[in-house]
Specification:
Blueprint (H helix, E strand, L loop, with lengths): L7 E3 L7 H6 L2 H5 L2 E9 L4 H11 L7 E7 L4 E7 L2 H5 L2 H5 L5 E9 L12 E5 L2 E11 L2 H10 L10 H10 L5 H11 L2 E8 L4 E5 L8 E5 L2 E5 L2 H7 L2 E5 L5 E5 L2 E5 L12 H6 L5 E2 L2 E2 H15 L6 E4 L5 H11 L7 E3 L12 H11 E3 L1 H4 L3 E6 L6 H12 L4 E6 L21 H4 L2 H8 L3 E4 L2 H7 L15 H4 L7 H4 L6 H9 L1
Parallel strand pairs: 1-4, 17-20, 20-21, 21-22
Antiparallel strand pairs: 2-5, 2-11, 3-4, 3-5, 6-7, 7-8, 8-9, 9-13, 10-11, 10-12, 13-14, 15-16, 18-19
The protein binds adenosine monophosphate.
The site of adenosine monophosphate has 19 residues, from α15.
């Protein structure tokens, strides 16, 4: 191993114990990642800028954060469990990440398998030199490729599908690094927005359908690649353009080079970025997420508009849709629920019982706004029904006379395999219950969801065209835009194999 290339990885005191690692489940783990990525080239304070960018992307992943920098001769790596600020607000940490180029990552996984060696950016020593990569998305053939690689002798260090990309690049026989990288991308299926670093280049790549977002920014002439424009705003960088679906962009001393190695296909960006995942102040695919969410709310009001006194958002995710609902319907908007911002997202708790506890910790009724009133609650989406059930009860306990519930997205009927954390079908309330059953479980006086065509109308289309759906809307329709190779495997996935790999 070349001493100069070996990163100084400060794993710190958070290195997990072996017991936790052995419980880790490769399959579950790879299906449950939500992430944000950031990369910058040619800035003297690359790591500090990356840390700020990751702060803005914190909503995309709260379990771990990492930055890898390159200083011209060595790579440096800091990867920790916890929030970005827990680690990267400390000056000594940033000082351990010198260099003019860096990539960073925030990660969110709900399984017990959050272990330090899954924290990205991952780093590998290749024959051509060091290579760091951060990935937002999920590969739908990641387990299949992993099994083949392990059979072929690869020793996996992590349980993420991202590591498969490192091995594929390492094993490529092509000469130029970019050709090896492209060869690796040709082998993978699914969703990816990647930022990668070599000792000469910052590389960004977006999957051929553009399922996950990736944008290009400019900070005083220095290129930035990141998941969302809110990270550009955070650091005062200018938005340049979206990285195109299937585009690979490389920045080095000679400037920018764009590669488009895949046959063009109609893009299918994930509609869940607009519904829930992205920050409302981001511009995704040329659309303001805030405006789209308001339009979802307005469509919802157009589709069903019971006689109520106030519109109450479920904070924070339901707020823009509730504004849209209120503006369209003319029903006053009230903050009937106050959110405690110092607890994590509901889903961060691994078990249902703890999750239910989490909801109570997170929301409180604002009695002054709802007592004696007929209210309509607006949330962005319904997954397990945990939030809605608790909130309806809370509203009744606080004196609401009628409680109607509306969701600013259609019923989620199918799991996601592209990097959004949703349960399997059995855990999705709408996939297992009728509308009336759901209304009863939630305890609302009425319940309705935005229609699929209403969702498309909010996006500016007359309706959903099944021949050209424009978005990845598989959670609602089951129309998965890529092969689901791992899911379709007849042979069970190699859990023992991966556990052995972990134990070694
Ligand atoms: P549930 O309480 O299980 O029905 O989940 C619905 C709530 O979770 C809504 O308030 C959503 O804003 C939020 N939500 C939706 N999708 C996700 C996700 N993938 N990860 C975390 N929270 C989500």
């Amino acid at each position: 191993m070349d001493e100069m290339q070996n990163p100084s990885d400060h794993a710190g005191e958070l290195e997990p114990n072996l017991g936790i690692e052995l419980q880790d489940d490769v399959e579950g783990d790879t299906l449950r990642e939500e992430c944000g990525v950031f990369g910058i080239f040619g800035h003297p304070e690359a790591a500090a800028i990356t840390a700020l960018g990751l702060h803005a992307l914190q909503h995309r992943g709260q379990e771990a954060a990492g930055i890898v920098s390159f200083d011209g001769s060595r790579f440096h790596s800091e990867r920790r469990l916890g929030l970005v600020g827990d680690t990267f607000s400390r000056r000594e940490v940033i000082e351990r990440l010198p260099g003019g180029m860096s990539v960073g990552h925030v990660r969110y996984s709900t399984t017990g398998g959050t272990i330090l060696r899954n924290v990205q950016p991952l780093f590998a020593e290749l024959s051509a030199g060091g290579f760091a990569v951060g990935h937002n998305g999920n590969l739908t053939n990641g387990l299949t490729l992993r099994r083949e690689l392990v059979k072929g002798g690869a020793m996996m260090q992590s349980t993420t599908d991202t590591e498969v990309i490192l091995h594929l690049v390492a094993q490529s026989k092509r000469n130029r690094f970019i050709d090896r990288f492209i060869e690796a991308l040709r082998a993978i299926e699914g969703a990816y927005a990647l930022v990668a670093l070599t000792n000469k280049k910052l590389i960004g790549a977006r999957d051929p359908l553009g399922i996950r977002p990736l944008v290009l920014g400019d900070l005083d002439g220095r290129p930035i690649l990141t998941s969302e424009t809110c990270a550009l705003d955070m650091i005062g960088a200018r938005y340049v353009r979206d990285i195109e679906p299937g585009e690979i962009i490389v920045f080095d001393e000679d400037g920018a080079h764009s590669h488009k190695p895949f046959p063009p296909k109609p893009p299918r960006p994930c509609i869940f970025e607009y519904i829930y995942f992205s920050r409302p102040d981001s511009i995704v695919g040329g659309r303001s997420v805030y405006d789209v969410r308001k339009a979802f709310g307005a469509e919802l009001a157009r589709e069903s508009h019971p006689d109520v006194d106030v519109v109450v958002p479920v904070p924070d995710s339901g707020v823009p849709a509730a504004v849209g609902y209120s503006q369209y319907s003319g029903v006053p908007f009230e903050l009937g629920i106050i959110r405690n911002h110092y607890v994590g997202r509901t889903f961060i708790q691994p078990t249902q019982s703890v999750r239910e506890l989490g909801v109570r910790m997170k929301h409180s009724a604002n009695r002054a706004a709802i007592e004696g009133k007929r209210i309509i609650l607006i949330d962005d989406s319904l997954v397990r029904g945990t939030t809605s059930k608790k909130i309806v009860r809370m509203m009744r306990d606080a004196g609401a006379r009628e409680v109607h519930f509306r969701l600013a997205s259609p019923p989620i009927l199918y799991p996601d395999y592209y990097g959004i954390d949703l349960p399997d079908r059995g855990g999705l309330l709408a996939a297992t219950h009728s509308l009336e059953e759901m209304r009863d479980i939630i305890g609302a006086d009425s319940l309705a969801f935005l229609s699929i065509d209403g969702m498309y109308r909010a996006m500016g289309y007359a309706s959903r065209d099944p021949a050209n759906p424009k978005f990845s809307d598989h959670c609602f329709t089951g129309a998965y835009p890529t092969n689901l190779t791992d899911q379709n495997q007849v042979e069970p996935q190699p859990r023992q194999l991966s556990l052995l790999a972990e134990a070694s």
